[in-house]
């Protein structure tokens, strides 16, 4: 793992939330966490208005293989409400900054990989199928 943006394309996000705008992604500098692993991050903005923020994605390879349930507990730190299950490997919730947080955790390459995806828009249950699609895409690619 060396970057976050390759895990989820900007148009995949726009399609999942039925947004007709064109978006770009930008890889941010990797950040050592102080816990023995590095966090990689990507931000998504409208192509015609870089100040129009759509989402962020952070991917983390944890140095140990945690049980999936334990890894998904990290979602509670981001949530203003109780996380709801999307798939066996993912949960979603209203984030503390009033957006949508989707957390995916999968065992991969002898470690547990976590993706934390944050949409700027609040949870909209009419997009639940899109959230599931995003979660499955991330789980498959992690």
Q: Could you tell me the radius of gyration in angstroms? A: 14 Å
Sketch the topology as an H/E string, one letter per element. Answer: HEEEEHEEEEH
Distance between the termini: 9 Å
Query: Based on DSSP secondary structure assignment, what is the total number of beta strands?
Result: 8
Strand content: 35-45%
Percentage of helical residues? 10-25%
Number of helices: 3
Overall geometry? globular
Q: List segments where confidence is low: pLDDT < 50 over at least 5 consecutive residues.
A: none
Question: Describe it for me?
Answer:
The chain is of the alpha+beta class and 142 residues long. Helices cover 18% and strands 40% of the residues. It has helices spanning 10-16, 68-72, 128-141; strands at residues 23-27, 31-32, 38-46, 49-62, 84-87, 90-94, 100-108, 111-119. Strands 1, 2, 3, 4, 5, 6, 7 and 8 form an eight-stranded antiparallel sheet that branches. Helix 1 packs antiparallel against helix 3 (128-141). The chain is globular.
Short description:
This protein is α+β, with helices and mostly antiparallel strands and 142 residues long. The chain has helices at residues 10-16, 68-72, 128-141; strands at residues 23-27, 31-32, 38-46, 49-62, 84-87, 90-94, 100-108, 111-119.
């Amino acid at each position: 793992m060396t970057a976050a943006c390759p895990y989820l394309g900007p148009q995949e996000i726009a399609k999942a939330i039925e947004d007709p705008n064109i978006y770009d992604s930008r890889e941010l500098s990797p950040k050592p966490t102080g816990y023995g692993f590095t966090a990689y991050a990507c931000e998504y903005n409208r192509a015609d208005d870089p100040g129009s923020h759509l989402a962020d994605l952070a991917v983390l390879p944890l140095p140990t293989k945690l049980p999936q349930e334990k890894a998904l507990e990290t979602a509670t730190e981001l949530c203003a409400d109780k996380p709801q299950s999307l798939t066996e490997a993912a949960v979603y919730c209203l984030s503390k900054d009033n957006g949508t947080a989707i957390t995916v955790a999968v065992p991969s390459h002898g470690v547990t990989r976590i993706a934390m995806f944050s949409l700027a828009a609040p949870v909209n249950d009419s997009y639940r199928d899109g959230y599931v699609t995003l979660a499955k895409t991330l789980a498959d690619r992690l």
